[in-house]
UniProtKB/TrEMBL annotation:
Its EC number is 2.6.1.52. Keywords: Amino-acid biosynthesis, Aminotransferase, Pyridoxal phosphate, Serine biosynthesis, Transferase. One of its GO terms (cellular component) is chloroplast stroma. GO terms for biological process: L-serine biosynthetic process. This is phosphoserine transaminase. GO terms for molecular function: O-phospho-L-serine:2-oxoglutarate aminotransferase activity; pyridoxal phosphate binding.
Length: 341
């Protein structure tokens, strides 16, 4: 990477591939033969339609998404999906199951209580969110509308390496994949719905991706705002209102870049249950943490402070973090250790 770029370990918005940023820079003022920037285009014009269609088809290729699923490019972040999902899939008295392995799953659960009757069937809270449950031990409700998990807990660094089989009557598993989306291959056919904010692995903030099985669309509660109704977005190919055009364009560049690198098989290697995306760590002498962060920043490694709710440090190493960044951090950690014993 170029010398004047620093290694940014932030959990999101996060570092983007330099090649993608350079491509965007080269097209910033004039996109192909359109005579204008993507930021200035009509979202209904043929140029932008070609951009969003290519972004969708590249994402379908990357994740091998079948035509049984809609791919939607929405707004409002993953947080909005915490409400949209129960509004679209449940009636107010329907029960749903939540496995809560960290703060994000907990937030999704709390939001769902407004629109349906969610139950936490397993929580890692008493063990400070350091575990994934054994799937056999889960007491799933056969009448639940769906089973919700957070695939990778960004704050606690706990990642599902495989997924529970949903035992509810419609067999629907839903996953918040915000912080490991497109970091490795996923069998989409095992899910009813996958959602992710773009701003970690696949683009800038402002775009939220929802991949939903087509038969789950069209039964939203009557109070559902139009902007949260999946059917409206699906029927209008994510162009019901003005979408986050530039963000979608950037996501498209990232998808293209991932395909050029050989697809998601190339992105990660599964080793243990530790998250490969968000790596929280602490120092034996916790009083040295501020010094660690200060020295790292002098070495051009920033955003290593842990989430305010858990403290310590956290390195987020999404796809676009170069190996050199991780190597530099590891070398720095060893050096820091040897200097401070
Ligand atoms: N879910 C997970 C796993 C996250 O990491 C985040 C944000 O960091 C969110 C949800 C909230 O996403 P957003 O800020 O896009 O609403």
């Amino acid at each position: 990477q170029s010398q004047d770029r620093i290694f940014n370990f932030a959990a999101g918005p996060a570092t983007l591939p330099e090649s993608v940023l350079k491509k965007a820079e080269s097209e910033l003022y004039i996109w192909r033969d359109s005579g204008m920037s993507v930021m200035e285009m009509s979202h209904r014009g043929k140029d932008f339609v070609s951009i969003i269609e290519k972004a969708e088809s590249d994402l379908r290729l990357l994740l091998n998404i079948s035509s049984d699923y809609h791919v939607l490019f929405l707004q409002g972040g993953a947080t909005t999906q915490f409400a949209a999902i129960p509004l679209n899939l449940c009636k107010p008295n329907d029960s749903v199951d939540f496995v809560v392995t960290g703060s994000w799953g907990d937030k999704a659960f709390k939001e769902a209580t407004k629109y349906c009757k969610p139950n936490v069937i397993w929580s890692g809270k008493s063990e400070k969110y350091t575990k994934i449950p054994s799937f056999e031990a889960l007491e799933q409700d056969p009448n639940a509308k769906y089973l919700h998990i957070c695939g990778n807990e960004t704050i606690h660094g706990v990642e599902f390496k495989n997924y529970p089989v949903p035992l509810n009557k419609d067999g629907i598993l839903i996953a918040d994949m915000s912080s490991h989306f497109c970091s490795k291959p996923v069998d989409v056919s095992k899910f009813g719905l996958i959602y992710a904010g773009a701003q970690k692995n696949v683009g800038p903030s402002g775009v939220t991706i929802v991949i939903i099985r087509k038969d789950l669309v069209g039964n939203a509660q009557e109070i559902t705002p139009v902007m949260l109704d999946y059917k409206i977005h699906a029927d209008n190919k994510s162009l019901y209102n003005t979408p986050p055009c530039y963000g979608i364009y950037m996501c498209g560049l990232v998808f293209e870049d991932l395909l050029n690198q050989g697809g998601l098989e190339q992105m990660s290697v599964e080793k243990s249950v530790r998250s490969l995306m968000n790596v929280p760590f602490t120092l034996e002498k916790s009083e040295l943490e501020a010094e660690f962060i200060k020295e790292a920043s002098k070495e051009k490694m920033v955003q290593l402070k842990g989430h305010r709710s858990v403290g310590g440090m956290r390195a987020s190493i999404y796809n676009a973090m170069p190996l050199a960044g991780v190597e530099k951090l590891v070398a720095f950690m060893k050096d820091f250790q040897s200097r401070h014993g």
